[in-house]
Write a structure and sequence with these properties.
The structure holds two protein chains of two kinds.
Chain A: E1 6-12, H1 18-26, E2 30-34, E3 41-48, E4 54-59, H2 71-80, E5 92-98, H3 103-112, E6 119-124, H4 126-131, E7 135-136, H5 138-145, E8 149-151, H6 161-173, H7 188-205, E9 206-207, H8 214-223, H9 228-269, H10 274-291, H11 294-310, H12 312-325, H13 334-339, H14 344-350, H15 357-366, H16 375-386, E10 391-392, E11 396-397, H17 398-425, E12 435-438, H18 446-465, H19 467-480, H20 497-509, H21 516-522, H22 531-541, H23 546-550, H24 552-559, H25 562-574, H26 579-589, H27 593-619
Parallel strand pairs in A: 1-4, 1-5, 5-6, 6-8
Antiparallel strand pairs in A: 2-3, 3-4, 7-9, 10-11
Helix pairs in contact in A: 3-7, 5-7, 9-10, 9-11, 10-19, 11-18, 14-26, 15-17, 16-24, 16-25, 17-25, 20-21, 21-22, 25-27, 26-27
Chain B: E1 12-13, E2 22-28, H1 39-48, E3 56-62, E4 70-74, E5 77-81, H2 83-86, E6 89-91
Antiparallel strand pairs in B: 1-6, 2-3, 2-6, 3-4, 4-5
Classes of the chains: A alpha/beta, B alpha+beta.
Chain lengths: 623, 92
């Protein structure tokens, strides 16, 4: 079976429509993983040619050359050359070019020819090119390049037929024989010569319309306007936030309700005891508390993929580059940081678009400071219990103002941390260059978007099923063992390892105004921030009677001082209270080091912020 | 091939060009830019984005702060670069 697979790799410049061609050829038969040892995404898909040949297709990261300036581009080079660990030398290299924009693609093809691999060039988006008046003499181009050239329309049914037939012919007849690989990194002079050669070939075989795409130019005259452009960007972000918080809410409540029902069913069905507690509190509520974020992740990625496909992302980076640059951040860090407002996990995953390692690390380090949606339940609980719902200055709700303030503190401290990192670690380096193509606008294709969302949702669920699940079980274990002695009147968690740890760290947290109950709740809160709410409920529920658990807020209002509540809010802005985020940082940075750096710097900030908040509040008489 | 930048008023650096400027790439001088990239690497990247001698360029858009970065039409594509790196492109 394995031996019969015909291996094709897909190579092309960024924005060549490579991914939509990949999606068109393979549909949902895709496997997303990582290349060993690096954090580059390995996208493999499968399809069957008209004559029944099984094909494996790998979508390689987009690149302008084989020089390998970033980990992504190194993978492209190594896979094409057959150097990558665990990858077979491809039998065919499928180069993809945007037919409306051949200059850079033809130069890449000329460079790729040195690798000696059998190669085909697909002129993608040929329909758009035709409509714009671009005519390509395909046979002449094929003759000039010395490789077969086909046209394709990835987004239309049957648009890849010609390509599939050609694949069959090449695979069956082995018309192309691999040659010696004489590729080496091009020098500046060679690059220049190759580009000249590409321009010469294009001049002979392609006729360009007199007028460029006026639609893109017209849209850009508004969208890239220094003032209106930023207003439009702000409007898009506003809609995105609304969507993440408002649209996701009903579905999230449905999921949370479903898991709760499932837990209750388990409680009713299984006999009380360890197994019941494990399944209800460890498995179901643990996994449930993660899966509940799926709707937000889907909506975030829906927006990201739509804007990406439309061609807007590069524009957002353009508009934000200098503004973010003030804090030592790269323009491309904008989207990852934005995603982090929903959840730091997709945000950290999205930092892969930043090719400079330093910029990427800075972005990963500050992404958890963005106020993610898991903090909202904690903020809401404490605010509604301690902050009066009165109006200030006539029209502003005080509770809403505090919530807004928490977001602002998160953002400003993220910017400050970034500026500090830049100042202390990379002060003497000039900022990494910002050079990127602003592609022509294209209407996004829903099928391609759907496939993109599906693969990301599956990645998230997979992680929820493995790493995060293991963390949940560990935290359940800490909160459940050793068990309460027979006849104990206090809640079971009081006798557990979590309580022992909680009491042990209580003296450390006492200066922040935290009692041992808070210290205990912070431990299960490591699973996910909002779990702390449930844990506080557990710790206080039996102390205050059954009905108290249903109204945690009221109980807290009687047990804590305002200073303690404010201190806990400050703690939650900064504290690294999320095992999943730390796990993702470890995976994305390829080691423990940056995970621990993140953990300790956030812990230090949290401690300092809480200490200051508690003491200021007390000096104002809120203690 | 060396170009004296003061030789002629018509020789300029793309990094100094304002919105609306249009011209032709005359040379790449990686050493002109105070970039974090080496001169050769910067030139390579510029070539990979289509900045070769003779290419037609036009400054289409400027950012809000310090008129930076700039969006440049290079033949038939649009490229965003910071002025810092655009200093490596000598235009006429």
């Amino acid at each position: 079976m394995e031996a019969a697979l015909y291996n094709i790799v897909l190579v092309g410049t960024p924005n060549s429509g490579k991914t939509s061609l990949f999606n068109a050829l393979t549909g949902s038969r895709q496997k997303v993983a990582n290349y060993p040892g690096v954090t580059v995404e390995r996208k493999q898909g499968f399809f069957v040619t008209p004559r029944g040949r099984q094909v494996s297709l790998i979508d390689l990261p987009g690149t302008y050359s084989l020089r390998g300036r970033s980990p992504d581009e190194e993978i492209t080079r190594d896979v094409v050359l057959g150097r990558a660990k665990g990858e077979t030398l491809p039998e065919l290299v499928l180069c993809v070019a945007d037919a409306t924009n051949l200059r850079l693609a033809i130069r890449l093809v000329l460079e790729m020819k040195h690798t000696g691999r059998p190669m085909v060039l697909a002129l993608n988006m040929f329909d758009i090119a035709k409509r714009r008046g671009v005519t390509v003499d395909v046979p002449a181009l094929s003759a000039a390049l010395g490789i077969p050239v086909v046209t394709s329309i990835a987004v239309r049914k049957g648009g890849t037929d010609e390509l599939l037939q050609l694949t069959d012919t090449i695979a069956a007849e082995a018309t192309q024989i691999a040659r010696e690989n004489d590729w080496r990194p091009h020098s500046v002079a060679e690059l220049r010569a190759t580009q000249r050669e590409a321009d010469r070939i294009i001049k002979e075989t392609v006729s360009l319309p007199a007028r460029p795409d006026t639609w893109t130019a017209r849209v850009d005259s508004v969208v890239l306007h220094p003032v209106f452009g930023l207003i439009i960007l702000a409007a898009i972000l506003f809609v995105m936030f609304q969507a993440v918080f408002a649209w996701a809410q009903p579905v999230m409540e449905l999921i949370a309700g479903g898991f709760e029902l499932l837990g209750q069913w388990v409680q009713a069905t299984l006999p009380a005891g360890l197994l019941q507690s494990f399944i209800q509190n460890g498995v179901i509520s643990g996994v449930g508390s993660v899966i509940v974020f799926l709707p937000q992740i889907i909506i975030i990625f829906l927006f990201i993929l739509l804007l990406e496909d439309f061609g807007y992302m590069a524009r957002a980076a353009f508009l934000m580059d200098r503004i973010m640059g003030g804090a030592g951040l790269h323009g491309r860090a904008f989207i990852p940081l934005l995603s982090s407002f929903a959840c730091a996990i997709p945000g950290i995953m999205a930092t892969r678009v930043i090719d400079n390692r330093r910029d990427r690390l800075t972005t990963i380090l500050i992404a958890p400071l963005m106020t993610c949606s898991a903090r909202i339940p904690v903020y809401t609980l404490i605010i509604s219990a301690f902050i009066p719902a009165k109006q200030v200055w006539g029209w502003i709700n005080l509770q809403g103002l505090v919530m807004f303030g928490l977001y602002v503190v998160g953002i400003t401290s993220a910017m400050a941390v970034s500026a500090l990192i830049k100042f202390f670690m990379w002060r003497d380096d000039a900022p990494a260059p910002f050079m990127l193509e602003l592609p022509d606008y294209k209407l996004p294709r829903l099928k391609s978007i759907a496939i993109g969302i599906y693969t990301r949702a599956m990645m998230f669920l997979q992680r929820a099923g493995t790493t995060i699940f293991a963390m949940m079980v560990l935290i359940w274990f800490l909160a459940s063992f050793p068990q309460a002695p027979v006849g104990a009147t206090d809640p079971g968690i009081d006798y557990s390892l979590a309580a022992i740890i909680g009491r042990f760290i209580e003296p450390v947290l006492a200066p922040l105004g935290f009692n041992w109950q808070i210290a205990v709740a912070l431990i299960p809160g490591m699973a996910a921030r909002e779990v702390a709410v449930a844990a506080l409920g557990t710790v206080y529920s039996i102390e205050g009677g059954k009905e108290a658990a249903e109204q945690i807020g009221q109980v807290l209002a009687t047990k804590w001082s305002l200073a303690t509540a404010l201190s806990l809010l400050a703690w939650y802005i900064f504290a690294p209270q999320c095992a999943s985020t730390l796990a993702v940082i470890k995976r994305e940075t390829g080691g423990w080091r940056w995970m621990w750096i993140t953990f300790f710097y956030m812990l230090a900030l949290a401690y300092a912020a809480s200490l200051v908040t508690y003491n200021i509040a007390r000096s104002f008489g809120a203690g | 091939m060396t170009i004296d930048l003061h030789e002629s008023d018509s020789v300029r650096l793309l990094g100094n060009a304002r919105r609306g400027f249009s011209g032709t790439v005359q040379a790449l001088k990686g050493g002109n830019a105070e970039s974090s990239l080496s001169a050769a690497e910067l030139e390579s990247r510029l070539i990979e984005l289509g900045f070769v001698e003779g290419a037609r360029v036009e400054v289409l858009h400027e950012g809000l702060i310090g008129r930076d970065p700039i969006a440049v039409r290079v033949e038939n594509i649009t490229v965003a670069v910071r002025r810092r790196e655009a200093m490596a492109v000598v235009v006429i």
